[in-house]
Each structure stands twice: as structure tokens, then as C-alpha cells.
Amino acid sequence: MSSLHAAERQVVRGSTRARDVLPGLRLLLADEPLTPWLATEQQSGRVEGPPFWAHAWPGGLALARWVLDAPEFVRGKRVLDFASGCGVSAIAARQAGAAHVDATEVDRFACAAIEENAALNGVKLNVRGDDVIGVDDGWDVVLVGDVFYEDELSRRVASWLRRLSARGAVVRIGDPGRSFLPMQSLACEVTYPFSASPAWDSVVDRPARVWSVP
């Protein structure tokens, strides 16, 4: 167990349960956000953000399914899973044969959840807690799921992804078509019948899509 996130990993284990989300891939998840949210605040003694890490979001599931269906895109490659959440896309990339996967999250409880889920699936990930927007560590493949919720953040992320794509990285976005997704500049690669739970999200009536950044 990572000593850095030992207490947080205990919170993750105590407020979730393991379930199958894709063939051969299990995650520690919660049915609703309140239980893990209260658990994080009890552990930290302060106000915490929503526990987005305790749900398998449709964009992340779509990316994971795409990676498992087309492992040639990641096999032997260096992969970034940005805003990894529960780690589903990162885990799928390792299962599909990626040589190295950076899973990034700025929420320490999310980092703990990724570590727990990686251990649950028997894969090794490099979990990073730094903000990598604007960073280029030479990744071959960049996966981005369910991040286009806010205008300013979406603009920053989209600009960064375009730069990564321009220098040759394969960039894929998993998203059901949220308000700030720049769909006009993307190409839809595939659609999957994944949707969010009403307990977690208001966007529950759209399929999840994998988009490429040209």
C-alpha cells in the first residue's frame, strides 16, 4: 500500500464495493455520492469536493472499452490517462498492453481510488497528483474522459490536447456530449451504450462516444 495515500485508501475501501464494469475489469464504486463524500470529510476534518472517483463515468467507460477493443493503439506505448477518476481507462490501457501508464488526478482521494482499483485488477500504474495541463512528457497516447463540465477548464484542456495531437500523440476523448465539449473540432470514432447513474449525473439519456482530436 502506498504510505502517501494509506488513510485515503482506507476511506475508499470503506465507502465502496467491488463490482464488474467490463469483462475482466472490476472497480470499487459507490451507488450514490453521499456515503463516500461524508467518509472523505470525516477522515480529513474539512470540506471536500464531490467524490467523482467513486463512480464509473460514461466517458471513461467508453475509453476503456475502446482501448480493450483496439489494443494496438496502446500496446507497448506510453499512455496518459488525464483526470483518471476511478482509473478505469488507465487500468484498461495496462490490460491492453501499454508499457507505461500515467494516471493523473489532483484529488488525493481519487489517487487513492486509482491505486486501490489498480491493485484490485493486478496492474501497475504510475499515479500522479500534479496538474499536468500544459505538460508534455512524451506520451504516445492521451486519454481524457468526462472533463468538459466548465468553460474555462474546457478551453485550457482543449488547447493543450490540440498541441499534443499536433506533435503526434494519439488523443482520444470519452464524453457523452457535454455542454463544453468542442464537438465541432472533433471526430466521433465510436459510440457505446454507457450512461451515468441519475444519482450521480443529470446527463443520463445520451450514449457515450469516443472522439479523436485531429
UniProtKB/TrEMBL annotation:
Gene Ontology molecular function, alphabetical: protein-lysine N-methyltransferase activity
Keyword field contains DNA-binding: no
Record carries keyword Methyltransferase: yes
Cross-referenced Pfam families: PrmA
GO biological process, one term: methylation
InterPro entries tied to this protein: Ribosomal_L11_MeTrfase_PrmA (IPR050078), SAM-dependent_MTases_sf (IPR029063)
Keywords associated with the record: Methyltransferase, Transferase
Leader peptide range in chain numbering: none
Protein name, entry field: Nicotinamide N-methylase
